[in-house]
Every structure is written in C-alpha cells, then in structure tokens.
Amino acid sequence: MPDAVDRLNAALADRYAIERELGRGGMAIVYLAHDRKLKRQVALKVLRPELAASLGGDRFVREIEIAAQLTHPNIIALHDCGGGDECLYYTMPIVEG
Questions:
Q1: Which tens digits make up the pLDDT trace of 18-42?
Q2: Distances from the Cα of 70 to the Cαs of 6, 49, 58, 74, 75, in angstroms?
Q3: Which domains does the chain have, with CATH numbers?
Q4: Strands 40-47, 28-35: pairing kind
Q5: Where does the pLDDT of residue 86 fall: very low under 50, low under 70, confident under 90, or very high at 90 and above?
Q6: pLDDT in tens, 31-81
Q7: Gyration radius (Cα) of the chain, Å
Q8: Alpha-helix runs per DSSP H in 1-97
Q9: In degrees to the nearest 10, what's the CA dihedral of 49, 55, 61, 67?
Q10: Contact indicator for 76, 92 with CB cutoff of 8 Å
C-alpha cells in the first residue's frame, strides 16, 4: 500500500517531485519539492488528507485566497495552487534560515 508521499508524488507527478518533509502543523504538511515546469525548488504546503476527507478544504482554500492577495516585502508570495478534494496544495519560495 503506498504511503502519503507516494500518493502525493503520483497526484502531482506532472508538475512537482517531492524531495522531503520540511515540517507539519495542525492543518498541513510542508514539503521541499522540485517544480518540474519552472525548474526550481519550492515549499509545497498540502492540506492533511484526513482533514480534506473529514472537513473539506474550505478553510484551506480561504487561506490560499487570502495569502494570494497579500503583498508586502516581509510576506512570502504564493507561486501556485491546485488539487482536488483529497489533495489541496499551494507552493511558495524556499526561504533559507
């Protein structure tokens, strides 16, 4: 049975390759990923599958919509977002430090 990273890699294979987990919180898991289209590393934030299944992704989608509207030198911009009910994600630049 494939694990969560295998399923995520399969779902996003056309665009992203998951390299490793960077961290996790109450709602999401953040991975270091390679953007195959733009040839750069990104932080890929994915809604936890159990939350997507039980609660739906409405709160996560609101987070994406709000974050996309913010513009400030100290706020990281979103690069991309997408997914379906079982795999909601967005990507941001990697910030070292």
A1: 999 999 998 899 999 999 999 999 9
A2: 32, 26, 19, 10, 7
A3: 4-92 (3.30.200.20)
A4: antiparallel
A5: low
A6: 999 999 999 999 999 988 787 777 667 778 888 899 999 999 999 999 998
A7: 13
A8: 4-12, 49-54, 58-69
A9: -90
A10: yes
Q: Which amino acid is at 54?
A: S
Euclidean distance between CA atoms 66 and 47, whole angstroms: 16
Q: How far apart are the first and last CA of the chain?
A: 36
Question: Among residues 10, 70, 76, which one has the least CA distance to residue 45?
Answer: 76
The CA distance from 75 to 54, in Å, is 30
